[in-house]
């Protein structure tokens, strides 16, 4: 990019975003987040960082986790054309990847959508246990700047949420989700989120799967 000046043109280098960002579920601060990041790195997904953007916990503390969950079910599961920018994503990595789990999957989707619309290439967008709206999901699939979308539903573990779920289905399954969250046993939607006896195996298996999908 060249800027005009009173003397001679000044060239400014614009860094392309690089590295892998992982957003966890509502609150973005669960005890599973750092061990999951460690599993990603161990599997070979280098330059992997914790996503901390856009959580209500940053302003109202732990109550923000509930607000995040409500936003996931009502608001940001649909396409939002606002600015979803990142800072510091200039690691010496070969790829630009976004991974999101539950609420975090919507942050990943919105951010990928924003960058793709502005001409940046996203190598992988991974949506885990995502309550994303079908229309928004199709918009992402149609954007050629998003090279690969990996959808990981957790239905086999009893999660009623899946990518493309309707608003009615979310409301219909609210009690089931509340029960799964309250049990703290790593069941259903919270298969990766609760720290249980075999969590390390679960996190490692997820990391290996994503490495197999091509994330580096």
Task: Detail the topology: elements first, then pairings.
Blueprint: E1 2-3, E2 10-11, E3 19-23, H1 33-43, E4 48-50, H2 57-60, H3 63-74, E5 96-101, H4 103-117, E6 124-128, H5 134-142, E7 149-152, H6 167-172, H7 174-183, H8 199-212
Parallel strand pairs: 3-4, 3-5, 5-6, 6-7
Antiparallel strand pairs: 1-2
Explain what the structure shows.
This protein has 216 residues and is α/β, with parallel strands linked by helices. It contains eight helices and seven strands. The protein has a five-stranded parallel β-sheet with strand order 4-3-5-6-7, sandwiched between helices. The protein has a two-stranded antiparallel ribbon with strand order 1-2. Strand 3, helix 1 (33-43) and strand 4 form a beta-alpha-beta unit. The longest helix has 15 residues, at 103-117. The two termini are 29 Å apart.
- Counting helices, strands and paired strands, the structural category is alpha/beta
Radius of gyration (CA) equals: 18 Å
| Major sheet: arrangement of strands | 4-3-5-6-7
- Total number of helices: 8
The run of helices and strands is EEEHEHHEHEHEHHH
Key terms for this structure?
single chain; 216 residues; alpha/beta; five-stranded parallel β-sheet; two-stranded antiparallel sheet; 8 helices; 7 strands; 38% helix; disordered N terminus; AB_hydrolase_fold
Q: Can you describe this structure in just a few lines?
A:
The protein is of the alpha/beta class and 216 residues long. It has one domain.
């Amino acid at each position: 990019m060249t800027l005009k000046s009173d003397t001679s043109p000044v060239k400014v280098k614009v860094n392309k975003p690089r590295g892998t960002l992982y957003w966890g579920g509502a609150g973005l601060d669960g005890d599973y987040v750092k061990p999951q990041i460690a599993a990603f790195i161990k599997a070979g997904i280098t330059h992997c960082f914790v996503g901390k953007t856009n959580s209500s916990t940053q302003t109202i503390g732990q109550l923000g986790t509930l607000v995040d969950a409500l936003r996931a079910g009502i608001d940001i599961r649909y396409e939002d054309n606002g600015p979803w920018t990142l800072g510091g994503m200039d690691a010496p990595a070969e790829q630009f990847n976004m991974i999101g789990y539950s609420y975090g999957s919507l942050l990943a989707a919105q951010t990928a959508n924003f960058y793709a619309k502005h001409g940046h290439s996203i190598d992988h967008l991974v949506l885990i246990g995502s309550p994303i709206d079908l229309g928004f999901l199709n918009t992402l699939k149609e954007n050629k700047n998003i090279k690969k979308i990996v959808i990981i539903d957790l239905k086999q573990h009893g999660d009623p949420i899946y990518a493309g779920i309707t608003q009615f289905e979310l409301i219909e399954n609210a009690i089931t989700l509340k029960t799964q969250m309250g049990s703290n046993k790593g069941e259903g939607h919270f298969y990766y989120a609760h720290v249980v006896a075999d969590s390390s195996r679960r996190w490692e298996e997820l990391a290996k799967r994503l490495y197999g999908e091509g994330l580096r």
